[in-house]
């Protein structure tokens, strides 16, 4: 394993890292390593994420069908508007 030193860490970043380390209940070193692995998509169990995973695939089939029905008119063209 390689040892690295990161210099000139902005105060805002240092504060955010401290907050995240407390949230995760880990050391600062472990938190920084995990965050870098996650950001680079090389974490063992977590893939790189844009944050949308919390929304994707959460609708039931009934909710999906209801949404499709409610938004179907948006795909229709009004011939009067396109003259």
Fold blueprint:
Elements: H1 11-24, H2 28-40, H3 61-71
Helix pairs in contact: 1-2
What do these coordinates show?
The structure is a single chain. This protein starts with 10 loop residues before the first helix and ends in a 12-residue tail after the last helix. The chain is mostly helical. It is elongated. 46% of the residues lie in helices and 0% in strands.
Give descriptors for this structure:
83 residues, mainly alpha
Concise structural overview:
By secondary structure, this protein is an all-alpha fold. Helix content is 46%, strand content 0%. It has helices at 11-24, 28-40, 61-71.
Amino-to-carboxy terminus distance = 69 Å
How many β-strand runs?
0
Described by the principal axes of the CA atoms, the overall outline is elongated
Structural class: mainly alpha
Q: What portion of the residues fall into strands of 2 or more residues?
A: under 5%
What are the secondary-structure elements, in order, as H or E? HHH
Q: Average the pLDDT over all residues and give the rounded result.
A: 87
How many DSSP H or I helices? 3
The level of helicity is 40-55%
Rg over CA atoms:
23 Å
Largest sheet: none
Low-confidence parts, pLDDT < 50 over ≥5 residues? none
């Amino acid at each position: 394993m390689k040892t690295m030193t990161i210099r000139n860490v902005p105060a805002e970043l240092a504060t955010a890292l401290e907050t995240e380390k407390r949230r995760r209940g880990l050391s600062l070193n472990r938190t920084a390593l995990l965050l870098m692995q996650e950001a680079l998509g090389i974490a063992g169990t977590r893939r790189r994420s844009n944050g949308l995973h919390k929304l994707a695939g959460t609708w039931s089939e009934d909710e999906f069908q209801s949404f499709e029905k409610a938004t179907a008119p948006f795909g229709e063209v009004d011939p009067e508007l396109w003259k």
